[in-house]
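Run folding on both entries below.
>entry_1
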Amino acid sequence: MKKGLSQEGLKILACVTMLVDHAALLFGGSPWLRVIGRLAFPIYCFLLTEGIRHTRDKRRYLSRLLFAAIISEPVYDLVLYPGVGIWQHQNVLWTLALGCAMLWCMTMIRKPIGKLAVMLLFALAAQLMRASYGSSGIYMIALFALCREVPEGKWALAAGLLAINWLMGSFAVPVFGLDVPVQLFSELALIPIFLYSGRKRTYSKVVSWGFYLFYPVHLLALWGIAQCITGALCFGI
């Protein structure tokens, strides 16, 4: 097995960059913190394709994602979209769960046209649900899965990821006098992904569930910190 990042190493990197992104979203700061956060979602997409490829029980794998999405939704709405209708935005775990179901369906279909139809169906579902990243998130997940099946898939993956992120649109940051959409920096996630060794460092169920629960727990922790800061300012502390 080649040297490089383990599966847990990639998960930790995704968690840390997501934490930085959400902290910047809640507390402000340099827009470059949001750039760091762009690495998280592509890594999660890649890890999802790894998971669905190697799991012995796809039903259980999907069930864990759905459970995490359900318990995360109230926290997600409270922290990132307070006062907004609960159906206006759905957390990213719903996108990953839809992507998982899509990949499961695609493994049972051989014809490319059938796989395309499944992808478009789940992309529409993500849009209708208003899941985070919407149809673009589903396309990204499908891209990671399909590029495994073609020669020189890394080049196709890099080009496809660039196209998806370009079409998503986002605010821009200045780079050498040019305004570069921040979403394009997601391309940098390919560096650690290409360094992935295929090695899983631990098979601990506690650690595995910890990664699932990190999403709602870190959001709740950030919200708690924000409330403490607001309270301190109100009382002049």
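>entry_2
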Amino acid sequence: MSTTTTAGPAKMTEEQFTKLRQIIYQRSGIWFAEGKKYVLESRLTQRLKQLEMDDFEQYAMLLSIGPYREDEFNEMFSRITINETSFFRNQPQLDVFENKVLPILLEARKATKRLRLWSAACSSGEEPYTLAMMVHRSLGVRLPDWHVEILGTDLSQKMLLAAESGEYGQYAVSNTDPLILNRYFQKTPTGSYTIDPTIKSMVRFERHNLKDTLAARRHGEWDVIFCRNVMIYFDQPMREGCLKMFHQMLADDGVLFIGHSETIRLPELYSARSEPHAFAYTKAENEVSHVA
């Protein structure tokens, strides 16, 4: 009697890990440190099964020279990053934005009536839509007189397509006040929630790699930049590169918001705002003081 053996899941060798993490870093700036091989392996093993590949060497070749490597990069990035987000996430920080930062900016921009917000690494769009709701209720009847531009960018085309659809499940709205939910969302027969068309029209989405500083600078100057919980994936050079790029693109009176587990140690570029739980930074005073 013969015995049939079933091969187990592919195991990633140290050499394959080195090769894959370098490919990932070169394309995205995301860095898998030594000892994180198991993380990369666990997040990509199912993908190898779907592609009917025997090992990670074949997968590295697909990402390097395969005819569909761009499509596969999109698929891979959605798997190796954690896209867990929701509306009104980290409410104390958002309160600082809405109640402290936004009123001052609106007053400063009353002559031009132009406001620009960038949500970098926005995942499936909850953050930029949240900002749009806050701007909408802050401006109220004045909104038609203003040119408000809110841009959400992400590396994953899959996440951006989800954002553009404007439809979300119960988890995404779990932190949303019922009054806001009734005002800015419509519940579908299937139990999901769709964004109010007015709010949806305030936000546009675009694929962007934070390593591509030239593409970012083409968008010009921003009044507020949100980049929360993405720089934790970067090594120090990549992190500093992003922060220097944000500094160049931030208005002199603008504000940068980062994630609660992230810090900025570039005193020559940034000063932390004093509000508790803000995780917000302005350009360093010595920089602003030199503006003519």
